[in-house]
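ASSEMBLY PREDICTION REQUEST
Request ID: AP-0331
Submitted by: J.K., bench scientist
Number of chains: two
Total residues: 690
Priority: normal
Notes: Please return the full assembly, not individual chains.
Input sequences:
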Amino acid sequence: MQLHTTTIEPPRGRFDIDLAEIWSYRELLYFLTLRDIKVRYKQTAIGVFWVILQPLLTAAIFSLIFSTFVRFESIGVAYPVFALSGILLWLFVFTSVTMASNSLVGNTNLVTKIYFPRLIVPISSTLACVFDLLVSLPLLIAIMLFYRVGFSASILAAPLFLILAIIQAAAIGMLFSALNVRFRDIKFALPFVLQIWMIASPVFYPASSIPEKFRLIFAINPLAGTIEGWRAALFGTPFDWPFIAIACISTLTILILAVLTFRQMEDSFADVI
Amino acid sequence: MIAIKAKNLSKRYVLGAARADSVRDALSGILRSPRRSKRDELWALNDVDFEVKAGETIGIIGRNGAGKSTLLKILSRITRPTSGRAEIRGRVGSLLEVGTGFHNELTGRENIYMNGAILGMKRTEIASKFDEIIAFSEVERFLDTPVKHYSSGMYMRLAFSVAAHLEPEILIVDEVLSVGDAAFQRKCLGKMRESGETGRTVLFVSHDMSSISRLCRRAIWISDGRIAADGQATEVIGRYVQQLAGSGAEKTWEVASVAPGDDVVRLRSVRVCSESGETLNSPDITKPVVVEVTYNVLREGAVLSPNIQLYDERGTCVFVSIDQEERWHRQPRRPAAYVSRSTIPGNLLAEGSLTVTVVIATLEPMTVHIQERDAVIFTVTDPNTGGSARANYAGQLPGVVRPRLKWETIELEGRDK
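STATUS: Completed
Returned structure:
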């Protein structure tokens, strides 16, 4: 019988990720995700309906403010639909980054008692939020039908932008989860960071309302191009390709940065947490 | 075939800095001391070398904080060594805590799958053993109840049951059996023993010396991050227990003037040995043990009766035995050196450590000349090779003594007659 040999050595600061190993732990990933989903709405009266209620209420408040007091030009669709489409993505990013950053610290007993690729923990938090995102999508479709938004073939591209948002949420989530093990400052800094991120993203306003000279800085935020592309796909408006390309590049950069940081800190998790 | 090979394994913890919980601490740490003082370091493991053959069951013993858990954590890949390396052949299952990943809000059924996955079992593997696991746990009725409504006993049983069905090539177990009720502990020990017999390699940390001596042929004693002894379990345990007690199976007083005693009689030495005179730290439960007391009688015509008293780990007096040899009864002695040997038969004492108190007295009128408390210590072990009262039963057996009784069972007339 051929047995697998494992070598245990001091950390050497390597920057490889063993994807095969993470794959071999996919069942743990599955169960951790399932646990997160099952546990989240336990002992709540309306349970998973919160997934629909949260974006709906937020969209209602935004609509009240931005279609009554302040008005945006050229958004192409009714403002509530416009707002809801952005809010769905933003709430997903917000909850999954919040959940993921606390995931390692919240699972201290797993980290100090069992070996597994640590990346699984923040990723499972993100995946549990993906489930919420998918559950809330029918709401968006219903609201779109209600406001008689025409569907075009470009809607087929919409999932690509969801995936882009998921990668961003996962990357930022794993970055903060690792930093949080070492620096509990993250707990205090995170709400602030997320607030700024939301304001810097075209959640409740269109990117077109950003003055031309700030557009490039604005585009560095990967979520900006993602939300814009997502809306273009949903509403059949033209894609702003340079904008989307910048979003892809910065997503990739953040992902690489996050994975490297995570790998670098991973070896000391059990000692420091 | 070698299952585990550890070479110069060391693990250093930097005290203080490792606990820096904020950015400010980390920054001030960098600014203050480019080179850390030696005092802030702790070598939890220092140059540890050993090999484990596939199929061996090894007990790891040592005081709290000696480095046992650090070693297990390194071998289970939870933390990395500071230097050195280890090679492990085969799938490792580590059980450093019972019920890791259990979630209060989930039901027993859900937790079985969750915990199984955390311990490294495949979903199909858990499914195929599911019935066995719930039968073992004895909580069938509450399978679909969230575990937060379980009693602590039920919770433990369920958690143990999942762990007990883990089947890796190498099993690493920390002291997890110290919790849970006695009956269930026994069941788990039995299951572990079974797994040892099926050729699995087991590393087992425990403070319970009798379960180590029962389950393991070999033991490693870790002290201050180093291996203090590595060898046959009964022997290593014997040495460890003696070090804890601060004495051994033999004690000699070289200087007569400070030896226990008075102007009538003085003690020279006390020793625990085999019938053939070989000093024994950890006698086999089935073999007789001789307690040998050597003393000098100083006064002409002294009438003396030596006696020995055995105490177990809880301080219970197991027995007192007075020299009743006819020859010296009420018999005045000449000044000389004497040796009194008492033989404790095999299959009388229970497993565990025993201290021997030696008393030499004159009975009429009652005068105690020597009373040396806890003069020597020895550890009775049962390697479970047959011939003892446990009849190959691997679990814990209570009782101050463990005589092997004569048993007889005969079949009476059949019921139908």
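REVIEWER COMMENTS: Chain A has a mean pLDDT of 90.
SIGN-OFF: pending second reviewer
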